[in-house]
Amino acid sequence: MHVCKWKPHPQILNRAEREHYGILAQTCYDANMASGLVRAAERARSPAILQLFPVTLAYGKGPFLQFCLNVAHQASVPISVHLDHATDPEHLELALSLAEQGIAFDSIMVDASHADTDEENIAIAKPYVEGAHKCGIAVEVELGRLEGGEAGLRMISDAKLTDPAKAKAFMAGTGAIILAPSIGNLHGSYINPPNFRQQILKDLHAEFKGKVPICLHGTDQLPDELFVECIKNGVSKINVNSWGRDVYAKSIGEGLLSKPFPDAVEDATEVFAKSCERFFALFGSSGKA
Q1: How far apart (Å, rounded) are the C-alpha atoms in residues 196 and 45?
Q2: How far is it, in rounded angstroms, from Cα 266 to Cα 268?
Q3: Residue 84 annotated among the catalytic residues of the structure
Q4: Per-residue pLDDT tens for 175-233?
Q5: First-to-final CA distance of the chain
């Protein structure tokens, strides 16, 4: 049996769960955003996760992933690099082929939540989970299905809530070690106020405490108190995308019209870093590194 030498990602999440704070998993689209996240994490003395979407990996491939790994792993605080929502075979195969070349994510999400049944989800995910584990890459999977879509992710229209009673068998079947549940959250904008089923989180945490970290997706526009409640109920990884992306894009777009290029980039990077710092404080991770 192959014994994995795990990268830092699970340890970051396991400590957060034990000490009841959350880890910001911030989606980054370019080098400035990656650098801004690291800058913010070092200032706040917070652990963090630098997260990429498959569309960004497909564009930058090995060189950009290597940059992200370098800037994260050379930081003075623990920062891991995660591939979010890898659904299509070409993206999963690209990530695993890069890992075989020595350019490996710390973790990836093998997202087969589009499958019609849990059994099909397991059948799709398991071979990629096994391939990732051979490279020491931790894997996150989704039980149930979030609806919505953003930034090149597959659009899903029929949500399916996670059944906690099926979670243990699902995690054993896939072999993954991180769980993303569907609790009423969605990708993209909430047309109606979010209705999160906190009992699902409580039941999952009771089942997996100390063994399987829980990840919250679909955090656009959420009120601060809802983040705090989810962390209280067992969430340790919180995915964030548009909160930082939108203020960064606005700043750099406006800045390039009136400032020298380096100044516009620096100002936008700092705007992005301040967004990250707000979440470190809100999630309780400031000073934990």
Answers
A1: 30
A2: 5
A3: yes
A4: 999 999 999 887 677 777 888 999 999 999 999 999 999 999 988 889 999 999 999 99
A5: 34
